[in-house]
Design goal:
Layout: E1 5-8, H1 10-18, H2 25-36, E2 42-46, H3 48-57, H4 64-72, E3 78-82, H5 95-107, E4 112-115, H6 126-134, E5 138-144, H7 159-171, E6 176-181, H8 188-201, E7 206-210, H9 217-226, E8 231-234, H10 248-254, H11 266-279, H12 297-302, H13 306-318, H14 325-338, H15 348-362, H16 370-377, H17 389-396, H18 418-425, H19 432-440, H20 442-452
Parallel strand pairs: 1-2, 1-8, 2-3, 3-4, 4-5, 5-6, 6-7, 7-8
Bound molecules: cobalt (II) ion (CO).
Length: 473
């Protein structure tokens, strides 16, 4: 027997993927103890979008969620997704911030840190990894799965590339390795080859994280299970499928009587699902309703992740240029190629998407965002392929941060940030958590802190609606 282990992502990626990350802590509490008794390998409860949305829209202090849930969930380890040097924000932070953030996250109850970098440049994970290990927690190294063709292969994202990435992570001291397929483009047979090849080369457990977006993920999981994957990520049915993860229930049922049987009680899952059916309707306004299909066939063709598509559509609406969407899809592919074909994941996906819009509206690289200039300058790390020298020159012309690309570890170019931030926020921040959150989200966190400490009413902090019930800490 080799039971498949399950990481439950209902409380993080599940509602992030289909309910715009709006699930409130008060709606997690009623099922928290029951979830704890299911026998999940881990429960993912925290990450970038959670941190952002909680203070921006839900009037909840982001640090509180793991602390509150830990009172109800005592056996199952807590996992979080952390964007390496980006932590839970959208830019690279200096090492002092990274160290303080990881220490704090350990203190509030995170046990497993799934750490990734948008460019698969693992130098951006070194500071995180060092602190995670120093705190005696689990460092799970993830690489982003990406493609430049319809399936695995070609000159960049081939089997050798991913095996090499897995080995690099193991050498960095990863306690487990994760294949992060954020766009749901890993096909079943590629998954079989990929998992088989990596399992041969590494000793630590291997995780698969995939999204249902293209409709392939359940099949992909099954082939990965055949190839010996140790852990897969799922959500309870009401928070699964669409652009979220595969649902757990069919997987548990499908594996009964096999050597990969999970040992998880299906009836318990059904009861939990029933409960979620009662609370999910209040979030259903966030479900995408523009079409009937719950899978995105387009992603099979153009590989642009769903989140990126909604960002692009929003941006175009604002600029009154929605009719350019088709052109922009093509330009995204071209811009990505120009930028060394990085994986399309936060924050690089936003940078490339925004630049593709500028390229279509104003001419190619006539207007260039500072973030794209930073990417070309090397401040996000090493791109999978080099960027053309002529294009580099054009983009960096007169750029105040530098005109010659750099090749060192990106964080080595950053000055410490904490002391300056403390001075800037002053008395409004009453503890380290406030200061760190302010560094991550200066504008919205300042508003949040003003309402948290009763200076302004919660309404002025821009929260969507005030929670009826206050959740005790
Ligand atoms: Co995900």
């Amino acid at each position: 027997m080799n039971p498949l282990k399950i990481q439950d992502n209902t409380f993080r990626d599940g509602h992030q993927s289909i309910y715009a990350t709006r699930m409130r802590t008060e709606d997690m509490i009623p099922i928290a103890e029951e979830m704890d008794s299911c026998g999940f390998h881990a429960m993912e409860v925290w990450g970038g979008a959670t941190f952002d949305t909680m203070h921006r829209f839900l009037a909840e202090d982001p640090w509180m969620r793991p602390k509150i849930l830990k009172k109800y969930i005592t056996k199952t380890p807590f996992a979080m997704l952390i964007r390496g040097q980006n932590l839970v924000g959208y830019r690279h932070y200096a090492d002092d911030v990274v160290r303080a953030f990881v220490d704090k996250a350990c203190e509030i109850g995170i046990d497993i840190f799934r750490c990734f970098d948008a460019l698969n440049d693992f130098r951006n994970m070194e500071s995180c990894a060092e602190r995670i290990k120093a705190n005696g927690k689990q460092f799970q190294g993830a690489f982003c799965y990406s493609l430049t063709d319809v399936c695995m292969g070609g000159e960049i994202y081939n089997l050798e590339y991913f095996v090499k990435k897995a080995k690099e992570l193991e050498q960095m001291g990863a306690d487990a390795i994760c294949i992060k397929d954020m766009s749901g483009i890993l096909s079943p047979f590629d998954a079989y080859d990929l998992v088989s090849a990596i399992k041969k080369e590494i000793k630590v457990p291997l995780h698969l994280h995939s999204h249902y977006t293209s409709g392939m993920a359940s099949m992909t999981y099954l082939k990965a299970i055949e190839a010996g994957i140790d852990v897969v990520d799922t959500c309870l049915a009401p928070f699964a499928l669409r652009t979220s993860m595969p649902a757990i229930e069919p997987i548990v049922a499908a594996l009964r009587g096999t050597e990969r049987e999970t040992g998880i009680d299906l009836h318990k899952l059904l009861e939990l699902g029933e409960h979620l059916e009662k609370i999910a309707p209040k979030y259903s306004s966030h479900l995408a309703t523009h079409k009937l299909s719950i899978i995105d066939n387009g992603v099979l063709a153009h590989q642009v992740p769903g989140g990126m598509i909604s960002n692009l559509t929003g941006q175009l609406k604002e600029m009154n240029a929605l009719d350019k969407l088709g052109e922009i899809y093509m330009e995204v592919a071209e811009t990505r190629k120009d930028m060394g074909s990085p994986p399309l994941v936060t924050p690089v996906s936003q940078i490339i998407g925004a630049q593709a819009v500028l390229n279509v509206l104003f001419g190619r690289y006539v207007r260039v965002s500072n973030q794209l200039k930073d990417l070309v300058l090397g401040l996000y790390g090493k791109t999978p392929m080099p960027i053309d020298a002529e294009l580099t020159k054009k983009i960096l012309k007169n750029y105040k941060r530098g005109q010659e690309p750099v090749s060192g570890r990106p964080a080595d170019y950053l000055e410490p940030e904490i002391e300056a931030a403390k001075k800037k926020i002053g008395d409004l921040a009453r503890n380290d958590e406030d200061v760190l959150a302010y560094i991550l989200y200066p504008t919205t966190m300042e508003k949040f802190l003003r309402s948290k400490y009763g200076i302004d009413s919660p309404k002025s902090a821009g929260v969507e609606n005030i929670p009826k019930k206050k959740v005790a800490a």
